[in-house]
Amino acid sequence: MAFGDVKTPKGLGELNKHLAANSYIEGYTPSKADLSVFEAVGKNPGEKFVHVQRWYRHIESFTPAERSKWTGQAVPQVSGAKPTVAATKPADDDDDVDLFGSDEEEDAEAERLREERVKAYSEKKAKKPALIAKSSVLLDVKPWDDETDMAKMEELVRTVQMDGLLWGASKLVPLAYGIKKLQIMCVIEDEKISVDLLGEKIQEFEDYVQSVDVAAFNKI
Question: Boundaries of each Elongation factor 1 beta central acidic region eukaryote domain copy (predicted)?
C-alpha cells in the first residue's frame, strides 16, 4: 500500500492507518524502512495523527549511532518526486500486536492513576476536622427607662438558646438620666447564627428591651 506524500494530510492519514495496526513500517523491530519514512515525514505531525505521532516519538528516541546499525531495506522513493513510501504488512497473524502499547492504553492508565490520586486526596481531606468559623460579639441591650428591672432583662436575654451560641460576661453601662444599658458578650458560629437573627430574638422581650445594637464584632 502506498502512503503517497507523507508531508501532506492525505499521506499522513494513510501512514496513520498502517501504524494503527503495526509498531513499525516493516516487521517487529526498527529498520532502515522506518528511518527512511521518518526522514520523509520530517517532523512530529501532532495529535491529529496519533499513531504516526507515537511511532515518530519512538524512532526519534534512538540516537544516530543506534539508527546506523538498523538492518533491512530503505523504502524506495521516486527520484525527482515528493517522498513516496510503500509499506508491506507482514503476513504473520500476530501483526495486530503493538509491542509498545497504544496511546489509548497509555491514556487509560494515566486516567486511572489520576482518579486514584484524587480519591486518596479526598479521603485524606475528609479525615481532617472541619474548621468552624466563629465570631465574638458584644451587644448593647437598651431598656425603655430607668425603672426597667435590668437583672430580669439579663436573665431573659440569657434564655435565648441556639445551636452555636455561647453567652459570656456582661455588665451594666450608664447611659443618661439614671438609665443603664446591658453590655453582654457572646460567641457565635458563623454558619449557624446571624447577628440580626440573634437581635430579633432578644427584642421579642419587648416589655424590657427597647433596642439591640452591636457594639463590637470580631472574627475568632
Answer: 99-125
Q: Of the candidates 140, 141, 197, which has an alpha carbon nearest to the alpha carbon of residue 165? A: 197
Residue-wise pLDDT tens for the chain (220 aa)?
467 788 888 888 889 998 998 999 888 899 998 998 999 888 998 888 999 999 999 999 999 999 999 998 887 652 233 444 444 444 444 444 444 555 667 778 888 888 888 988 888 877 777 678 899 999 999 999 999 999 999 999 999 999 999 999 999 999 988 899 999 999 999 989 999 999 999 999 999 999 999 999 998 8
Q: Which domains does the chain have, with CATH numbers?
A: 1-86 (no CATH), 134-219 (3.30.70.60)
d(CA 126, CA 102): 36
